[in-house]
């Protein structure tokens, strides 16, 4: 074998292979696999502790019915931007569009939207782009000069163009990419658009994944977990290091747990240490990892752990999940779509808002009915004001009247005496003698 393989002339790299090489180098230099879009999505695919809470969030976000509101909070009945969001692309329902954006936003910390059609007009179609297929060209000061889509139907280089306070990423004047940014705590120029929430819980997730692999292989291979290889006899230091490296390479690691070891040597002593049931018990580790990830996403523990779930707290947990987990992600998505799409429809963010119909979400329906009843009982809103919350037509007669229960009377008055003549007037009920 030629150990000087690094001196061989390497074949020239294509543009795509250069991008992948830079992404790999960045991933290798990062402290967590979640630092890259590829690493974060891989954690989502391989860990149920991540996929379960993220899918809960994404499924709820996907069920929204987008609406356009003015600054008074009144719903604009019909608008082309709502038609586009309800039918983003032929063959792709709005549910899948918003659900996918929610997954990307929750896992990677940012998402990308592609818009097709003349860039100076409203888009004809919009679609989501997997962040794994995105590579950013940045300057030393962190300014993004281009967005490269490395694969997929929208592959190409979208060059940054400054238009007022907006930066647009355009290719051929008929394709544009919008970025829905998220929060970032890093000053790295590659993380300026948002970072994965999994960065903070990456070690726990990785520990859970490796623990599951370790346990599975231990049960499958049927060998011993803890083994000591004793090399007897006088051997040189370099021979010991070579043998030690060979043994570790062959038997160490979660994927090799439980493997039966056989090596060739003149005199080898192998001591096997017995396993306790605790060595095979990863239940506490799994519970801890799931709890940490759920708390990171704002999902109540009762929704990811059946032991904590009851019929009484299930409804409350769903409402808490929407408030703490779903609505923040939904707000980021709708705000990003506003910034990306409003200028193409000649809409101003100071006059309009992208929102959603809260009455259409099953997770909020019971809360909405409860709040509506409480506001009605408070008696400070007219029937038409309450009907507007349901997007119902106003009542023509009496709908703007403020009603108050007739059973109430001023404090200190007695409705059964003459102190309150408007309610009971004994003198008015007696016949007038003079009238005879």
SSE topology:
Blueprint: H1 15-29, H2 37-46, H3 48-62, E1 66-70, H4 80-86, H5 94-107, E2 111-116, E3 125-129, E4 134-138, E5 144-149, E6 156-163, E7 166-171, E8 175-180, H6 202-221, E9 226-231, H7 237-251, E10 268-273, H8 283-297, H9 301-304, H10 311-341, E11 352-356, H11 362-378, H12 383-389, H13 426-429
Antiparallel strand pairs: 1-11, 2-3, 2-8, 4-5, 5-6, 6-7, 7-8, 9-10
Query: Class by helix and strand content?
Result: alpha+beta
Q: For the terminal residues, how far apart are their CA atoms?
A: 134 Å
Oligomer: single chain
The Cα radius of gyration reads: 33 Å
Shape: flat
Taken together, the total number of domains comes to 2
Helix content: 25-40%
Low-confidence stretches: 1-8, 16-31
Query: What percentage of amino acids are in beta strands?
Result: 5-15%
Total count of strands: 11
Treating each run of at least 4 consecutive H or I residues as one helix, how many helices? 13
Short description:
The chain has 436 residues and is an alpha+beta fold. It has 13 helices and eleven strands.
């Amino acid at each position: 074998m030629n150990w000087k393989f690094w001196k061989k002339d390497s074949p020239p790299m294509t543009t795509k292979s250069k991008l992948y090489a830079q992404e790999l180098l960045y991933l290798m230099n990062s402290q967590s696999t979640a630092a890259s879009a590829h690493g974060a999505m891989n954690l989502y695919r391989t860990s149920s502790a991540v996929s379960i809470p993220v899918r809960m969030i994404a499924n709820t976000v996907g069920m929204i019915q987008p609406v356009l509101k003015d600054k008074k909070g009144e719903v604009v009945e019909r608008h082309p931007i709502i038609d586009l969001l309800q039918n983003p692309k032929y063959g792709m329902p709005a549910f899948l569009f918003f659900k996918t954006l929610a997954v990307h936003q929750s896992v990677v910390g940012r998402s990308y939207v592609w818009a097709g059609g003349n860039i100076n007009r409203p888009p004809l179609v919009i679609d989501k782009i997997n962040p794994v297929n995105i590579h950013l060209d940045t300057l030393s000061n962190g300014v993004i000069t281009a967005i490269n889509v490395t694969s997929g139907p929208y592959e190409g280089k979208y060059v940054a163009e400054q238009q007022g306070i907006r930066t647009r990423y355009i290719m051929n004047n008929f394709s544009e990419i919008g970025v829905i940014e998220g929060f970032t705590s890093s000053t790295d120029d590659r993380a300026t658009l948002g970072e994965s929430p999994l960065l903070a819980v990456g070690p726990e997730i990785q520990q859970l994944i490796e623990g599951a692999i370790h346990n599975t292989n231990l049960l499958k291979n049927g060998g011993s977990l803890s083994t000591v290889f004793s090399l007897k006899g006088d051997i040189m230091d370099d021979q010991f290091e070579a043998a030690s490296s060979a043994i570790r390479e062959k038997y160490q690691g979660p994927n090799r747990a439980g493997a039966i070891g056989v090596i060739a040597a003149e005199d080898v002593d192998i001591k096997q240490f017995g396993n306790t049931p605790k060595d095979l018990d990863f239940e506490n580790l799994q519970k801890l990892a799931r709890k940490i990830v759920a708390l990171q996403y704002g999902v109540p523990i009762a929704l990811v752990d059946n032991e904590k779930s009851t019929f009484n707290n299930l409804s409350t947990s769903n409402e808490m999940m929407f408030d703490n987990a779903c609505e923040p992600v939904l707000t980021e998505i709708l705000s990003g779509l506003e910034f990306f799409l409003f200028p193409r429809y000649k809409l101003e963010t100071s006059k309009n808002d992208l929102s959603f119909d809260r009455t259409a979400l099953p997770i909020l329906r019971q809360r909405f009915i409860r709040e509506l009843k409480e506001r009605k009982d408070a008696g400070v809103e007219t029937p038409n004001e309450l009907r507007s919350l349901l997007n119902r037509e106003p009542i023509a007669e009496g709908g703007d009247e403020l009603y108050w229960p007739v059973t109430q009377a001023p404090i200190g008055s007695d409705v059964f005496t003459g102190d309150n003549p408007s309610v009971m007037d004994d003198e008015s009920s007696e016949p007038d003698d003079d009238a005879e």
